[in-house]
Specification:
Structural class: alpha+beta
Order of helices and strands: HEEEHEEEE
Radius of gyration: 22 Å
Strand content: 35-45%
Helix content: 10-25%
């Protein structure tokens, strides 16, 4: 037997449950107090695009030539930066939004015509869960700004598949 009223105990338990649920949902969501989601501005020539990015501490992809980190972006999110003939969007009736030609990055690079744009592209080797050896087509950006931090010129690897399962972000940023 307890001198506490049963209604008071049940209301207190329900209130604690609700408060803890809100707290843990906030902690588990990207962009909470840890600030994992951030704005990423990519500049290529005179064109710019601003995307939501996830700061992914597990992203260790680096440029083998310079050792600098590489962004991984959904290919269709960078379309505005490229001239219409080079955009990785759907071609010849292929369904949007992810082009099948980026699944063969070596072939895509080979199909680029010689000229100034070809010099901006390169192939990046990578390893991931389920992929022992792979290649990504990467594009050299003139300037990358992550939040308020200017990271200067960087490579952005073009992912043929979404980088977010829910669409909350379009680019993965490795921690500097």
């Amino acid at each position: 037997y307890s001198p506490l009223d049963l209604k008071l105990v049940l209301l207190s338990a329900a209130g604690c449950y609700g408060l803890l649920t809100l707290v843990f949902r906030g902690i588990g969501r990207h962009g909470g107090p840890s600030g994992e989601l951030t704005r990423v501005r990519l500049t290529l020539g005179e064109r710019q695009v601003e995307l939501t990015g996830l700061v992914d501490t597990g992203n260790t992809l680096t440029d083998p030539a310079t050792g600098r980190p590489v962004l991984v972006a959904e290919a269709d999110s960078l379309e505005e930066l490229l001239p219409p003939g080079l955009r990785p969007g759907p071609r010849q009736g292929k369904p949007p939004p992810y082009p099948t030609e980026l699944r063969d990055p070596a072939g895509a690079l080979e199909r680029l015509e010689d000229g100034p744009w070809r010099l901006r592209f390169r192939l990046l080797p990578y390893r991931a869960v389920g992929v022992e050896r792979g290649l990504l087509l990467a594009l050299r950006m003139d300037r990358v700004q992550v939040g308020e931090e200017d990271r200067g010129p960087m490579l952005a690897a073009l992912s043929p598949t979404p980088v977010s399962d829910g669409g909350a972000y379009r680019v993965l940023v490795g921690a500097e």
